[in-house]
Automatic annotation (TrEMBL):
GO molecular function: beta-glucosidase activity
Natural source organism: Aristolochia fimbriata (White veined hardy Dutchman's pipe vine)
Pfam families, alphabetized: Glyco_hydro_1
Protein name listed in UniProt: Uncharacterized protein
InterPro entries given in the database record: GH, GH_1_N_CS, Glyco_hydro_1
Length: 498
């Protein structure tokens, strides 16, 4: 009864990674165990009113204790890789202002070894939204250039401890979202913003996101430099950055709307990738916001030439874009939002761009995957790409039966259509090296708490028992059909991109 495309004819490269993705704060729990320091999300989620259902990640889905069980689930899925993130405060409870936690290092050693024992490659994100609270207290975290050193110190410890076995590293998950929601809309920690962009007055929504992004770009380049000069040759791995993406379509054929699409792309993804790959911010951003955009020193520029081995994209959805350079449009969480002086909406003349889902900005628009991959191939000289997240949310409602979550036909259709679109991009020359489903198990969905379910495995949030959904069986069959043969080291020579 599984619908979807006749996928057996799709082709993926031999060493293609098929995996699932997760993030420390969303799955680990054990927030006070093993000497872990508090991080920004630990504190934020405990503030009243921040998380939709009043929940937090204190326990999450307890992967800290249940990692062996979860690795077994992955084995059943036949995935050959697992994308997870390291909790910075588990390794360095107080950043570089305190000691290294041996218990923290030990935990990830155990997880990595358990994965490798089952033939699953670890794909590790160094910071998936979280960092030790101490860095916020000391110097305001991402607002200060001091954090670049801190991040380098932390990354170096990880390369040293885990780099003999970890061949895939990502510095950040979605730094563009951290900048936007931490410092513009204020809905993520550290909840800084100014009106009319958000509901607070403690920050400056017009300048801080750009300072934060600047520090994250330089922190990324710093860590890539460390890896390339001190570890890459010996360890033979690859390092990149993962960005949140949307595909944008103009709402009409008029020139203003088409120009607005370009701005929307600049202000979401090119904002980070242009500096990291070409050493400069997009021309149009500079024109529109001028001196609010920081500049790179000559020293920075040396670091910023091809400062990534791969581009990671989290891709779920597409939106229409309408010009609003001259007209104003509603910002925030309403039915349309404005970023990059471009109004973004999922609906045109009452008709959604694709089937809506349980998440407000997530529409099913599989052709967006191929278009985005083609766009990135052309703009960034065919830099290798990993689709680091793609997945489908269900609304967690007390009125639904477990059975209705397990029969997740919509998720199967979603994954099937997006994978088909991805395969078409590969056929047309996109250098895509892997695909990760968000997520292995239902988990803590940030400000939405436990109200959304993205897992291939259903989790009973009381007993934390995992049960495979239809999509888990479907993904296993898909992988078996398109089986990748994983070699010890990546087959491709990543050094050609350094
Ligand atoms: C990714 O974020 C994350 O990397 C991952 O941790 C998360 O679980 C996954 O996607 C599923 O959502 O835009 O006003 O509705 C995706 C980017 C940006 C999506 C913030 C939700 C919430 C605020 N997220 N957005 S709003």
């Amino acid at each position: 009864c599984i619908s979807g495309a006749a996928t057996s004819s799709l082709r993926f490269p031999d060493d293609f990674l098929f995996g699932t993705a997760s993030a420390a704060y969303q799955v680990e729990g054990a927030f006070l165990e093993g000497g872990k320091g508090l991080n920004n999300w630990d504190v934020f989620s405990h503030e009243p009113g921040k998380i939709l259902d009043g929940s937090n990640g204190d326990v999450a889905v307890d992967q800290y204790h249940r990692y062996l069980e979860d690795v077994d689930l992955m084995k059943d899925l036949e995935v050959n890789s697992y994308r997870f993130s390291i909790s910075w405060a588990r390794i360095l409870p107080e950043g570089r202002f305190g000691g290294i936690s041996a218990t923290g290092i030990n935990h990830y050693n155990n997880l990595i070894d358990a994965l490798l024992l089952k033939g699953i490659q670890p794909f590790v994100t160094l910071s998936h939204y979280d960092f030790p609270l101490e860095l916020e207290k000391r110097y305001g975290s991402w607002l200060s250039s001091e954090i670049q050193e801190d991040f380098g110190y932390y990354a170096d410890i990880c390369f040293k401890a885990f780099g003999d076995r970890v061949k895939y590293w990502a510095t950040f998950n979605e730094p563009n979202i951290v900048a936007m929601h931490g410092y513009r809309t204020g809905i993520y920690p550290p909840s800084r913003c100014s009106r009319p962009f958000g509901n607070c007055t403690n920050g400056d929504s017009e300048t801080e996101p750009f300072i934060v992004a600047h520090n994250m770009i330089l922190a990324h380049a710093h860590v890539v430099h460390i890896y390339r000069t001190e570890y890459q040759q010996e360890q033979g791995g690859t390092i990149g950055i993962i960005l949140n993406t949307m595909w944008f379509e103009p709402i009409s054929n008029c020139a203003q709307d088409i120009a607005a699409v370009e701005r929307a792309r600049d202000f979401l993804v090119n904002w980070f990738l242009d500096p990291i790959i070409y050493g400069k911010y997009p021309e149009k951003m500079r024109k529109l916001i001028g001196s609010k955009l920081p500049t790179f020193s000559r020293n920075d520029l040396r670091r910023l030439h091809k400062a990534t081995d791969f581009i990671g994209i989290n891709h779920y959805s597409s939106l229409y874009v309408k010009d609003c350079l001259l007209t104003s449009c509603q910002s925030g969480m309403g039915s349309s939002r404005s970023e990059g002086f471009a109004c973004q909406t999922g609906i045109r003349d009452g008709v959604p761009i694709g089937e809506p889902t349980a998440m407000e900005w997530y529409y099913v628009y599989p052709q967006g995957m191929e278009r985005l991959l083609t766009y990135l191939k052309e703009r960034y000289d065919n830099t290798p790409i990993f689709v680091a997240e793609n997945g489908y949310p269900d609304e967690n409602s007390p009125h639904r039966s477990i059975e209705s979550y397990l029969q997740d036909v919509k998720r199967v259709e979603y994954m099937s259509s997006y994978l088909e679109s991805l395969a078409r991009a590969i056929r047309n020359g996109s250098d895509v090296r892997g695909y990760f489903v968000w997520s292995l198990v239902d988990n803590f969905e940030w400000i939405f708490g436990f109200t959304k379910r993205f897992g291939l495995f259903y989790v009973d949030f009381t007993t934390l028992k995992r049960t495979p959904k239809l999509s888990a069986f479907w993904y296993r069959d898909f992988i078996v059909k398109h089986k990748a043969v994983i070699s010890e080291k990546p087959k491709h020579d990543y050094k050609q991109y350094s």
